[in-house]
Design brief:
3 domains; 5-stranded mixed beta sheet; alpha/beta; 13 helices; 503 residues; 15 strands; Rossmann fold
């Protein structure tokens, strides 16, 4: 074990495993032991009952070593390393990521036929991250102990939390292992704590299929639907469908259980004040339900929340929002299915250069179009009467109309854009960057170039007529995607030349 006070704490030597469950069990043992020791020593320090000395506990790691290029199923986009070498990643929160880690371990063992090594890394566990419930450790300290905190415990260090691996800019120092995962353990822990702050729900509640919206109207309808799904149903078909979802969770971690599955009453308290980007969760076994987040308006929020949700490795995220229609042939209430993006949002320029294309993903596009068709009853050529597939331009200036807009309008026309918003390209670009399948279905709520600007009366009528249907389409899309095989949904389009093996 690394340096520090080791009294009463076992020393874990590197050990090889050919069984994914056994490897996961050892990861959990190391992580739980080290975190429990950190918590105990911090609590004694906070009470003033012991001087802990210098405490240094570290994350577990998983490593694979191969000396040959193994032939793998070329249809898969993950689960294998790109060539001979040593590959390693640090691991956190095996309680939260147990199914995910087990699947990654299993794929590596099957594809390469060599054991996995589990051991203790040199990467410190910051004391804040040893408390998975998001405890603010400084709040338990008097001023004198607060000044001494860094003398005794490791604290979060941004040098170990960057996105160089996912950005494709990580350079491996000579003699060091290559990355096995897209995120290091401290980077994951950082985002898990930020998620609780921004959404007022713990990361354990997030589901693998995520809807983003920029309007509270969608959230209001999602909440109504969530409570309806949890209500007792008499009709067998309705009861069977509702029983797919186990609970509905609102900010503050207020849980309403499905009355078709249990007699348990609600648990927890709703947040007295909504957070910056409240999240709501229609839960299903295996985290296969639907999370919906109101990201508000603007590309900054869109980047912030997707930066953090990405560490949960969701299977898909989709933007459902409003947009300005740019074509005279469009009507208020028409849908826009994005198949390309103009990135005028700028918040990702340093992480993902604007010359990088953001491709449409066939699996997402087909599910969205199928959901629109089923929900509206239109198909084929008739579907074009309410939905247009085209380029969406995303900008960072909501009041672009109030300046001389001849230049941006010319650019939008040259790009063949059919819609304009402030979030969609950001969410799609971050999906591309983080290897999370993405898509966009917008609804035209105004046409500023044609004199139909967004005014209260027009907006109220529009919201009443379209929000419910739009949300139904989004939920049906996620259910269609859930039915697909995981390997099919995670497209090879999202993977780079020398890709980390973990999904």
């Amino acid at each position: 074990m690394s340096d520090g006070l080791n009294t009463g704490t076992p020393t874990f030597r590197p050990e090889q495993f050919t069984d994914p469950d056994a490897a996961l069990a050892r990861v959990r043992e190391i992580y739980d032991t080290h975190c429990a020791d950190l918590r105990a020593r911090f609590q004694a320090f906070a009470r003033g009952t012991a001087d802990p000395g210098r405490i240094h506990r570290t994350y577990p790691y998983v490593e694979i070593v191969t000396d040959r290029s193994t032939r793998v199923d070329t249809r898969l986009s993950y689960g294998f390393v790109p060539g001979p070498g040593v590959y390693r990643t640090t691991i956190t929160r095996p309680d939260l990521f147990a199914a995910y880690y087990r699947h990654q371990f299993d794929q590596l063992l099957k594809n390469h036929g060599v054991p996995l090594t589990v051991g203790v890394s040199r990467q410190p566990i910051p004391i804040h991250f040893a408390f998975a419930d998001g405890l603010h450790v400084e709040g338990d300290l008097d001023p004198e102990r607060l000044k001494r905190l860094r003398d005794h415990f490791d604290v979060p260090d941004l040098a170990h939390m960057d996105d160089a691996i996912v950005n494709g800019t990580h350079e491996v120092p000579p003699g060091e292992p290559q990355p096995l995962a897209l995120f290091t353990a401290p980077r994951v822990d950082y985002s898990l704590h930020r998620l609780r702050h921004y959404t007022a729900t713990p990361p354990e509640r997030f589901q693998n299929f995520v809807l983003f919206t920029n309007y509270q109207f969608y959230i209001d309808q999602f909440v109504r639907l969530g409570h309806e799904m949890m209500a007792k149903a008499d009709h067998p078909a309705t009861r069977a469908y509702r029983s797919q979802y186990t609970a509905f969770v609102e900010p503050g971690d207020h849980v309403t259980f499905n009355a078709n599955l249990t007699s348990d009453g609600p648990r927890g308290t709703r947040a007295a004040r909504l957070p910056q980007m409240p999240a709501y969760h229609l839960m299903r076994e295996g985290h296969s339900g639907i999370t919906m987040v109101n990201i508000g308006v603007g590309p900054s929020n869109a980047k912030t929340i997707t930066d953090h949700i990405a560490v949960l490795r969701p299977h898909a995220w989709i933007m459902l929002g409003h947009c300005a229609g740019l074509r005279n042939s469009q009507r208020l209430g028409d849908y826009v299915l994005a198949h390309a993006y103009v990135r005028d949002d700028h918040v990702l320029d340093a992480d993902l250069p604007t010359w990088v294309p953001i491709p449409a993903l066939a699996e997402i596009q087909q599910a969205l179009e199928q959901a629109v068709s089923r929900t509206t009853g239109l198909s084929g050529y008739d579907l074009k009467s309410i939905m247009r597939t085209g380029t969406v331009a995303t900008i960072d200036n909501r009041n672009w109309e109030l300046r001389d807009h001849s230049e941006p309008v010319q650019r939008f026309s040259q790009s063949r854009a059919v819609a304009l918003d402030m979030e969609s390209a950001t969410i799609a670009a971050n999906g591309f960057r983080f290897r999370v399948p993405y898509g966009t279905l917008l609804c035209v709520s105004d046409k500023p170039l044609h004199g139909e600007i967004k005014l209260p009366g027009m907006a109220d009528r529009f919201y009443r007529e379209r929000v419910d249907q739009h949300l139904q389409i989004g939920i049906l899309t996620m259910e269609l995607l859930r039915a697909q095989e995981q390997g099919q949904l995670h497209s090879r389009k999202l993977r780079s030349f020398h890709e980390a093996a973990f999904l």
